[in-house]
Amino acid sequence: MTPRIKLTILSFLEFFIWGSWLITVGAYWFQNRQWSGAEFGAIFSTMGLSAIFMPALAGIVADRYLNAERLLGICHLIGAVVLFYLPQVNDPGQFYWVLLFYMLFYMPTISLANTVSYTVLVGAGKDIVKEFPPIRVWGTVGFIVAMWVVSLLRLETSALQFYVAGAASIVLGVYSFSLPKCPPKSAATTATSLTSVLGLQAFSLFRNYKMALFFIFAMLLGAALQLTNAYGDTFLHDFDKVDAFKNSIAVQYPAIIMSISQMSETLFILAIPFFLRRFGIKTVMLFSMIAWVFRFGLFAFGDPGDGLWMIILSCIVYGMAFDFFNISGSLFVDTQVSPSIRASAQGIFMMMSNGFGAWLGSTISGLVIQYYFTNPDQSMNWREIWLSFAGYSLVVAVLFALLFRHRHTANEPPSGN
């Protein structure tokens, strides 16, 4: 089996696990357990809270002490045990702590999977900007397949979705130990300071104005990503309370409708090399921010009837919104750092986007929706919710265009090194 095929399988399984429950956990929470929206905001923030420090910590370990592929396998095997236990939890407070414990081991695996892929590709003399997107696209395929499996088997409101994720986590955990070796790059480096001893060199990136600002906007966009993950599926499920829509395809199979977002990702991922070389990271990130405005704005005016085209178009736009920020950002970070801090730098990117960004987005949105956009009967004012999210994304886009400075020469890689 060639390294490229091995990395493709890694990418597929990595996101199959997440796709098995991420989009549908809201339906499980509200429809099955019937727990409150305020509590759900806190529950969904567990991935952000865990990503604040775990990806960076795992990156330090992979850079200095333990092969990245082995650490990846260990995290997934521990995570599988927690996923199998999760359906036994009947209290929302306990559910929070168990899910948080799981996320402490899952969130680092996203940046570790990227680190393994970059290390293997660079070691083979490949151009990661060209070679990584066609591999990463299979992660999106895995996410789509998982969503379809859960939806077609009618597991969207069932605890069985966590067993599907747990089984996949065991497979990937074992499989990780067969991946090409990715030993620590800085293990042999003589430590000359406390920062070196602790493996914190990557945090010096915050001293650079461009990189510091990049990480700040990664955090702000990470918040936008969590908004759509947390409430997209629940938004469609809520239409089952309307007689005109309750038997529509979008309400019967909301996860399948939402999977159009991931299908769109597959196209935009493959377009990333062209856009990065042609326009550079600033313009590509700006495209992402504008796409978020349309993502939320179309949701605001869409419905499962005559407005279904707006929901579908919103899902298509999501591909650009997600890929041009998340994947392009990861590639950009890798081009700006030395191999000795590759895993740590990817961990910091995860910390800012899926860590601080996700936690702030989930926590604040949950409180705002509960106090400003929830009716006395606990129904939600979805149009106002989505329009407020669109306004937020527009403000972020304007600030980024004004503040972020990065020169890019057309048709050249976006590397600053």
Short structural description:
The chain is an all-alpha fold. It has 17 helices and no strands.
What does this structure look like?
The chain has 417 residues and is mainly α. It has helices at 3-19, 25-33, 37-44, 46-51, 54-64, 68-85, 92-123, 128-152, 160-176, 194-198, 209-237, 249-252, 254-279, 281-301, 308-336, 342-372, 382-403. It has a single domain, classed as MFS general substrate transporter like domains (Growth Hormone, Chain: A), CATH 1.20.1250. Helix 3 (37-44) packs antiparallel against helix 16 and helix 13 packs across helix 15. It is globular and about 60 Å long.
- Give the ordered list of helices and strands: HHHHHHHHHHHHHHHHH
Strand content: under 5%
Q: By helix and strand content, what is the structural category?
A: mainly alpha
CATH architecture identity = Up-down Bundle
Name its key features.
single chain; 417 residues; mainly alpha; Growth Hormone, Chain: A; globular
Any chance you could write out the topology, listing elements then pairs?
Blueprint: H1 3-19, H2 25-33, H3 37-44, H4 46-51, H5 54-64, H6 68-85, H7 92-123, H8 128-152, H9 160-176, H10 194-198, H11 209-237, H12 249-252, H13 254-279, H14 281-301, H15 308-336, H16 342-372, H17 382-403
Helix pairs in contact: 1-7, 1-8, 1-9, 2-11, 3-16, 5-7, 5-16, 6-7, 6-9, 7-16, 8-13, 11-15, 11-16, 11-17, 13-15, 14-15, 14-17, 15-16
